[in-house]
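B., you asked whether I could sanity-check this one before it goes into the benchmark set. Here's the sequence:
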Amino acid sequence: MTESTLTAPAASATGEPATGTDAPVLHTHTVRLGYADTDPAGILYYAAWFPMMERLTSEFFLLQGLRQDTLSERFGWWMVSRATECEYLAAARLHDQVRIELRIGRIGRSSFRFAFHMIRIDDDVLVARAATTIVTVSPDQDRVEIPTDLRAHLTTWATVGA
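And here's what the prediction gave me:
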């Protein structure tokens, strides 16, 4: 069972861009963990979060009109993942339903971070939190400053939501 929703979050209480934990939820995806997601003991295999985070990110960009496969052709820049980290807080098991939340994190000069929360639906337990750093690059893969059009999206997502 899979369900996706686009959420229009409210601005942060201070009106300033929020980051990571205090940032508004931009997009969510709920998944029921399957056997392929777990180790032989039925506990989520640690690396299973990474493809789920990538799918959520790709879907969010697509819904924002930022198809990753056309960015270079349309705008002359594209995005690549530079780093990903995950902190495992509680076991997630076979058949658990987990809601994965996407939030904006730090916005830099040529990179930005997305923060993720993985929450078990049955008991509302935060089972993991993670982050991905994304860098804007030229078609030749040279790092470039975040383009004005993308920066406008990022700023909107950080203050008033998608």
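One thing to flag: Residues 1-19 have pLDDT under 50 and may be disordered. Otherwise nothing jumped out at me.
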